[in-house]
Amino acid sequence: MRTRYHQELAELGTSLTQLCDLSATLIGHATRALLDADLELAEQVISDYGRVTALSAAAEERAISLLALQQPVAGDLRSIVSCIRCIGDVERMGALAVHVAKIVRERHPEHVLPAGFEGEFAEMGRIAVELAGNAKTVVGSGDPEKAAGLREQDDVMDGMHRRLFAALLDRGWKHGAGAAVDLALLGRFYERFADHAVEIGRRVVFETTGTLPPEQEVGTY
Amino acid sequence: MRTRYHQELAELGTSLTQLCDLSATLIGHATRALLDADLELAEQVISDYGRVTALSAAAEERAISLLALQQPVAGDLRSIVSCIRCIGDVERMGALAVHVAKIVRERHPEHVLPAGFEGEFAEMGRIAVELAGNAKTVVGSGDPEKAAGLREQDDVMDGMHRRLFAALLDRGWKHGAGAAVDLALLGRFYERFADHAVEIGRRVVFETTGTLPPEQEVGTY
């Protein structure tokens, strides 16, 4: 009975790491679609979102069945409750990749990014993929130090996001209001993606230590 | 023992309805701060967010202690798991009100909204307050029909959001890129606020019927 239980608990963890992997793939593809104005890849991201919702519904059912059948206590219980919250975060990460892909589709065959912004978004995309990968590692290892590392990467993302907004709100902005709106939203999608990865790390620390690290500050944008 | 248990379960529901109330208050205040360029009220929203995080942490601890001590099964278990997910949604609703308030603070003493947009945002604010109030009713009653009503209000919000974006992306837009960025983000904050209220309704249906209604579609913006 205990063996079966620990196997099911491990499987719940596996579902969550699979969701992290999937969100890394989706934001990676969405970024490439954005940089190349690649409609086909954008459509793929949009249709792949069905895998996110299916996987997250299955993970939640697994958590409920663990709670119902095994009646876990103490550490295992916290771990399952953390998983339930993390499922919500990683689901949103997938949805944010879809938001990026939908802007690409909306503007196709035009490129969304004005010339000169490709490098910035390639970098935001790279950090997002890395954050999802590190969230996966944290979920697998439960290591509070690795979780703290997520915050450092998020700080880099926040800095890029702030600089992007400074450019958009500058009086010298010369790409028009439409492009500014698209870039503001894209910037926000990447920044929120990062926030959710950090939130997963915060939950893992909670799970390991029983104490929630302070909330992330709510930014201006 | 059972009496104590049902009392604690009821208290968990009360925590969630209090969070809905608080998010209604915050988005209502944030909207008034936006319409009146009222810095003091914006600051109040920002500092009131501490009550959201405190209340949501307490609600989550209550859920964990219910799961640990009472080992509920079947309907009660689903209800507690739904609560855990809803706490996340209503926390975000509070954070979105703070986002609105922070834009007001950032632009003060200027008004964020260009002339002619007050009515639109007053209406989006009104619907947001109503949605939070109705989410509270749904949490209290568990009524799937009332939960479906949330979706109808959300459709109205989505329509306003789409019309706002059409105006922002129109070549005739004459308020500059900075105002377009602010309005795009504000529009998104209200629309996301509504989505979270709908998500709470979706969870309540899950709790009542054991089946999750289909996910909301991920929009373009």
Protein topology:
2 copies of one chain form a homodimer.
Chain A: H1 2-36, H2 39-70, H3 74-107, H4 118-141, H5 144-169, H6 176-209
InterPro entries (chains A, B): PhoU, PhoU-like_sf, PhoU_dom
Keywords (chains A, B): Cytoplasm, Phosphate transport, Transport
Domain PhoU (chains A, B): 17-104, 122-204
Keywords, please?
homodimer; 221 residues; mainly alpha; Methane Monooxygenase Hydroxylase, Chain G, domain 1; 6 helices; transport (chains A, B); PhoU_dom (chains A, B); Phosphate-specific transport system accessory protein PhoU (chains A, B)
Largest interface: A-B, 45 and 45 residues
Mean pLDDT of chain A: 91
Note the main sheet of chain A.
none
Oligomer: homodimer
Q: Write down the overall geometry of chain A.
A: elongated
Description:
By secondary structure, chain A is mainly alpha-helical. Chain A has a single domain (2-209), classed as Methane Monooxygenase Hydroxylase, Chain G, domain 1. The first copy, chain A, has helices spanning 2-36, 39-70, 74-107, 118-141, 144-169, 176-209. The longest helix of chain A has 35 residues, at 2-36. At the A-B interface, helix 2, helix 3, helix 5 and helix 6 of A face helix 2, helix 3, helix 5 and helix 6 of B.
